Amino acid sequence: MMRRLARFVALLALAVAFTACSSATITRLAYNNAALAYANLGPMLTWTVDDYVDIDGAREDWVRVRIDRVLAWHRAEELPRYRAFFESVLAKSEAPYRVQDIEAHQRELRVAYRRVMAEVIPDTAEFLSTLDSVDVAHLERKFEEDNRKWLRESVKGSPEERLERRLKRFVGHIESWVGPITDEQRALVASRYRGLGDLSEEIMGERRFRQTELISKLKARVPRGELEATLKRLWVDSDSWRRPEYATKVRERDAVMHAMIADLSATLSERQRAALAKRIRGFLRDISTLTAST
Asked: For residue 181, is it left (φ>0), alpha (ψ between -120 and 50) or beta?
């Protein structure tokens, strides 16, 4: 859950919508400095689009204008909602989080994601409807290039080594919120995390499915309205096509993570709770700075 908080503040859904993938650069910047990421999001998203579809001249201007418009909407409409969200998280940080608190926060974030996607999908569909066969071929090659890179990383080392890398990253995310954790806390996290299993195959399967479906529609040059419906189905209404067994794994994984975060929060020291509150207040300050210029 904590990783998702930072990602939403940085409006990562825009990167997802315009490029049909996640932007690792924006993610890292957002996690370390949300205000700086937000301030630079327009140019970064334009560069990201250009990486997947060559844009220049009028088309680049079009992309910049649409991104600026969506960011203005997001600054005026969504950031105040994020403020209320973080204030709620901060108010509950002095005591252990309950599982139901974490579940409620996750639902809020999913609703926020849907709002952002509803705003950006029409522009995304309009942009995609202008692509010619050369553009679509370039986009398809870029997807395959990204997939090969992702697969290389996902199979590097033995299963145990891959698990340890994921666990190390996860502990790093936790410590970015509460500061260094104790050996006992690390053991609690490790015991729960090791039981989650590796969903890499399922994740890649969904990734390829989304890409294949999108490329198919683009090659068929379907009307813009059909592109909008496709984007919504693939990136918002994923439960309508996700395999039931994978959906069950995701729900079970979420349940384990929610319980682990709740149990971990019950072990936090005063120093760790102070670090958590400081981090949340930092996001609130970032939001105040960004909304002051609205």
From this structure: beta
